[in-house]
Amino acid sequence: MTDNSAQGSAGRTADDVNAKGRQGRNVFVKTYGCQMNVYDSDRMADALAPEGYSLTQVADDADLIILNTCHIREKAAEKVYSELGRLRLLKAEREKSGKRLMIGVAGCVAQAEGEEIARRAPVVDLVFGPQSYHRLPELVARAGNGSTVVETGFDVADKFEHLAKPSAKAVRSRGVTAFLTVQEGCDKFCTFCVVPYTRGAEVSRSVGQIVEEARRLADAGVREVTLLGQNVNAWHGEGPDGRNWGLGELLFRLAEIEGIDRLRYTTSHPRDMDDALIAAHRDLDILMPYLHLPVQSGSDRVLKAMNRKHTRDVYFRLIERIREARPDMAMSGDFIVGFPGESDLDFADTMDLVERVGYASAFSFKYSSRPGTPGAAMADQIDETVKSERLAALQDLLVRQQRAFNASLKGKRMDVLFEKPGRHAGQLVGRSPWLQPVQVDAPESLIGAFATVEIDDVSTNSLFGRLVKGQDRQESNGSVAIPA
Ligand code: 5AD
Ligand code: SF4
Q1: How many CA atoms lie less than 13 Å away from 324 in the CB half-sphere?
Q2: How high is the pLDDT of residue 276?
Q3: For the chain, how many structural domains are there in total?
Q4: Is 21 in the same domain as 152?
Q5: Burial label, 326 (beta-carbon count in 10 A; 0-12, 13-18, 19+)
Q6: Which phi and psi (to 5°) does residue 94 adopt?
Q7: Strand (E) positions, 330-460?
Q8: I need a surface site. Which of 243, 331, 391, 410 has the fewest CB within 10 A?
Q9: pLDDT for res 120
């Protein structure tokens, strides 16, 4: 079957190519790090589909293996080199039997280390950064000729314009929830963070491109769209009314698209939470009541050293306004412990901030010194043991808050969007409005549909519930039939 409405940049889809009997090849993409990398891995698969590459979940079956890497913390970057060590053996085995295996390193480690990767790991055929994904077919062809290709330029005018579009079949195979990148890069330069160096300056996609992609997702059956950006609420663009739009206005526009029943966005910066965005949380039912709004530290002194450019009080006031607009809002965040110079008192301020805000979920990390960032050159680096103790105390508090939030949902009814089979036979797993996975006994026919679920039990990470009979919900894509 050919889907003409969603063809790749080369004008053909993988389905066309296979129908023409061209010899199929397999690509295996291993994704590390954030949701943006998940989105990008799909874009790489889409770019290679017209070249006859099918996505495989088994590395042993692949002709091309791509590691889509993360550079945010030292551990994440080191994982790549251990994986390349394993791949060296796989490649050697292949070569013994006269077959070729091509290995590519993409993502933020590729961008940050470039040539160094090819030098440290000669097994690699291809190193390419996030600005080159639309050129993947050409880069693979060059590497296929035997030379090691390193492509880490930032010279793309509009890479999104050139990215291959997935076929409707490919979108469907990825499920009823989808990511949609609206913005990439960051101009904030927090002193601990490599993102401004690996992903470059902030770039926003146009309203037209975003609406078109959202429509294509909805037409292929996607019900929930999560807008992505390293600094997603810094997104801005010219609206059809000629005014400069921010993320709030964009969300109002996307909410009009037939078929999209839920919207989310991640990840945000407190300084970019403007009035229109808060109004979107107040007025749009389909904008889910879950907000990931990293603060990193509760100490004004540390926030200043991190170049976050806001105080703890500004963050508290912001959260008050957001909760006024949407009283059922669940807050999530990111925290770093052990930033250079962080004293016991500074850390106590972080614990106090967490107590005052009350998080439904959060991510917390030990500070990891990243080469080239201002933080790496700061005096007063914190001892690893102290970092570990602080992280344990913070995570203990955050887990207690997460459990308390989940427990508050016991006995409550909520809409769940079912995504896939659950842990046990006869079960499905879906997502609550607050993003927790919900395990429910339900027939497979409900995958891709919403239903009302009553929560019976909770754990730290999941909710458990049962279908509420007679609570079918008419959604834009059709009705949900719950068996009696
Ligand atoms: N060390 C530890 N954590 C970091 N993060 C970003 N850079 C570092 C670093 N150098 C965390 C921040 C950010 C999240 C994506 O990763 O909390 O919000
Ligand atoms: Fe990194 Fe700060 Fe930009 Fe977030 S806002 S990507 S932490 S520099």
Answers
A1: 9
A2: 97
A3: 3
A4: yes
A5: buried
A6: -60, -45
A7: 330-337, 361-366, 413-421, 427-431, 437-441, 450-458
A8: 243
A9: 94
Residue labelled with tokens 């993003």: 435
Instruction: Compute the distance from residue 196 Cα to the ligand 2 centre, in Å.
Output: 7
**Mode of pairing for the β-strands spanning 126-128 and 64-69:** unpaired
Residue at 5 is within a domain: no
Give residue 175's pLDDT: 93
The answer as to whether 42 is a domain residue is yes
Ligand 2 pocket mutation, candidates 203, 230, 302, 373, criterion most atoms within 8 A of CB: 230
The token pair at 4 is: 């003409």
Token pair, residue 75, equals 């551990």
The confidence score (pLDDT) of residue 483 equals 35
73 Cβ below 6 A of ligand 1: yes
Report the 10 Å Cβ neighbour count for 97. 6
Are 385 and 430 in a shared domain? no
- In sequence order, which residues have a C-beta less than 8 Å from that of residue 164 and are 6 or more positions away? 8, 9, 10, 43, 46, 47, 49, 50, 134
Decide whether any atom of ligand 1 lies within 6 Å of the 13 Cβ: no
What does the pLDDT read at residue 77?
83
Contact present, 471 and 451 (Cβ < 8 Å):
yes
Tell me the torsion sign for CA atoms 223, 224, 229, 232.
Answer: positive
pTM, 2 dp: 0.91
- Ligand at shortest distance from the CA of 338: 1
Range of the domain at 448: 413-481
Q: Measured from the CA of 193, which atom of ligand 2 is nearest?
A: 1
7 domain residue, yes or no? no
Contact criterion met (CB below 8 Å) for 228 and 39: yes
Q: What are phi and psi of 55, to 5 degrees?
A: -80, 130
In a domain, 170, yes or no: no
CA-based Rg of the chain, rounded to a whole angstrom? 23
**Polymer length in residues for the chain:** 484
- 365 Cβ closer than 6 Å to some ligand 1 atom: yes
Cα–Cα separations (whole angstroms), residue 409 to 262, 403, 454, 464, 484: 20, 10, 9, 10, 25
